[in-house]
Amino acid sequence: MNTLHKHVFIALLAAQAILLSLIERLIPPVFAFAPGAKIGLANVVIIIALYTLSTKDSFFLVVLRLLLATLLGGTVMGLLYATVGGLLSFWGMLLLKRLPAPHFSVVGISAAGGFLHNLGQLVVAALLAKTWTILLYLPVLGSIGIVSGILSGILAKLLLDKWPHLSHKS
Which residues neighbour 111 within 8 Å (Cβ) at sequence distance 6 or greater? Predict the structure, then answer.
């Protein structure tokens, strides 16, 4: 795959991830019993990137999505929470993906990413509030992250299976 095609593919993934992030902001809270919990629609695109791009390009996509989604309607505090959650999720999913066989499935890796994303955000909240009692919210938010991750993982797996030619790894 030549460089131009790879860059266009990354740009398309970035646009999709940003669009999904913006659409998710318009959706009323799905988890009304858990303030701050979201579905994590853009995670589908990140999972696809993990399986179709190099680590460097996948990481670039994560950072680009975080920055552009914030510029298009986020806040500085939102960027802080999203960055820590997003990066912890990315590196955790990458580590699980690289484990030797038998390894985790796409769905399992995505579920772990959902949990890690919420863990990262709760750690930021605990540090800012200067109290670790915020982590008592982890069972609720962590469970939601796992369920959302499973749903994102199923969708990502379906898309990866449907279009196996997507791989642009270099």
Answer: 146, 149, 150, 153
Whole-number Å distance between alpha carbons of 87 and 22 = 19
- State how far the Cα of 170 lies from the Cα of 163, in Å rounded to an integer: 18
Express each pLDDT in 99-157 by its tens digit. 987 789 999 999 999 999 999 999 999 999 999 999 999 999 999 999 999 999 999 99
Cβ-contact 125, 97 below 8 angstroms: no
Total structural domains within the chain: 1
Domain, as residue range, for 22: 3-166
Distance, C-alpha 113 to centroid of its chain: 7
CATH number at residue 67: 1.10.1760.20
For the chain, counts of helices (H) and of strands (E): 6, 0
